[in-house]
Structure formats: C-alpha cells, structure tokens
Amino acid sequence: MEIKLSGIILIVGNYGSGKTEVAINLAIGSRTSGKDVQIADLDLVNPYFRTREVKDLFSDLSINIVLPPDQYLNADLPILSPAVAGMLRNPQEVTLIDVGGDDAGAIVLASLADALTDKNYRMLQVVNPLRPFNDSVEGCLAMRSKIETASKMQVNGLIGNANLINETNIEMIYSGHDFLKDVSQASSLPLELITVPAHLMPEIDTARVSCPILPIKRQLVPPWEKPVPVAIKP
Question: 215-223 contacts: CB < 8 A, separation 24 or more?
C-alpha cells in the first residue's frame, strides 16, 4: 500500500517515540518519489537527535528545511514560529513539522494557530509501544489528550513505530502493528502507517499488515555509528 500523506503534516508524540526519525524518513521518501518537500525543526525540547542534524542530507536532496540562524542552531529557544508560520501559509506538496516530545514540546504549536486557520492539516501521533508510557492503550490516549490540550489542536491520525533500534525484529513489528490497531479502535483515529527498518523489509509478510509501511533508514545515530546511506535521486 502506498503512503498517500500530503499537505501539512505535524508529527507529535511521546519523548523517545522516534517521531523525528519518522519525520526525516517521511521527508526523504516523499522527496525521492518526486514531491516537493519542506520541513521545519520545531523540537525545542530535546537537544539531541533533532531534524537539524541531517540538514546537509536535506540540502543534497533539495528538501527545504527551516532552522534557526546558525548562532542559535543548538539553542532551545522558541524563535522559529514566524518562519514556520510562513511555511504554513505557503505549503508545498509535503510540509512536515517535527514537533518536540510530550505535551511540553507541543506547546509551541499553539502559537501557530492563526497560520493554520482555514488550512487542512494532519497532526499524527507517533507511538512506539516498546517505550514507557506508550505500552498501554490508556497511556497512548492520555498522551494524546495532553498534546491536544497543550497545542490547542486535534490529533487526527496515528503512526506505529515499534522498534528497539538495533534489537528490532519481525515479531516486534507485527505485535506493534496489532497494538496500534487496538489504539486506533479505542481512539477512533486512523492508523496511517507503520514503520519497518529498511533491512527487515524483505522479511515482512504484507498480508499481516493493514496499512502502508514506511521503510526506515536510520539517520539519527550516535557518533560511533554511521547513518544508513540514502540515494540522492532528485
């Protein structure tokens, strides 16, 4: 099944859910399929593993990324809102917003409410059921409520991102998918896609999956590891 997400897409979720890696791979996948893509790093909570870490790759792929000025690149300051508001008023085929984790990270979205007036957008909650507070349906619903309250916006879709980084296996993928179906039923939110590490894709039985799959090529890695290579096609 093809991933058909387009327009303005806000990526939210628990701290540590992997939402930034999801946002990066959605941007890469959309661009390599021929779409115009722009992305904003609105993670003002986590000083590590942010979208800005792959700005050179995005430049090579002709993905427009909105970042703070260089002198503020490693600062946790709420200085992005005007630039992001401009993106939202003039969206490209795919306009991604990588939001900070938990409700604390989602607070900044409240300042963008005016820019989103009369705009169609998707706010997608990334869930990794192998992480604390994501491992129960009740926990996922509670985080949804907190994010909605903080952002003054509505979550309207789910992304399943079951993984334990290098320890991820096929059974984790299948059980994570089934768990997300339960969350989807309890929340009345559609399951837009699940992620699968790219190297495991040949082992996936797609008949066991009820939604599109986003292959993940990890870009956010510790200094002693190398990112998974991405073909520069556009």
Answer: 215/25, 215/29, 216/21, 216/22, 216/25, 216/163, 217/25, 217/28, 218/21, 218/165, 219/21, 219/24, 219/25, 219/53, 219/54, 219/57, 220/20, 220/21, 220/24, 220/49, 220/53, 220/54
Tell me: the pLDDT tens digits for 89-126? 888 999 999 987 778 778 888 888 778 878 899 999 99
Q: What is the pLDDT of residue 73?
A: 47
Buried b (16+ CB within 10 A) or exposed e, 157-167: bbbbbbbeeee
Q: How far apart are CA 172 and CA 194, in angstroms?
A: 12
Residue whose C-alpha is closest to residue 187's, from 130, 149, 152, 140: 140
**pTM across the whole model:** 0.91
- The vertex-198 CA angle with 174 and 226, nearest 5°, equals 130
Beta bridge pairs of residue 214: 195
* Average pLDDT across the chain, whole number: 87
E strand or H helix at 40: strand 37-42
Look-up of token digits 């939001």: 99
* Residue entry with tokens 């942010």: 50
- At the fourth CATH level, the homologous superfamily of domain 7-216 is P-loop containing nucleotide triphosphate hydrolases (3.40.50.300)
- Tokens representing 127? 């869930």
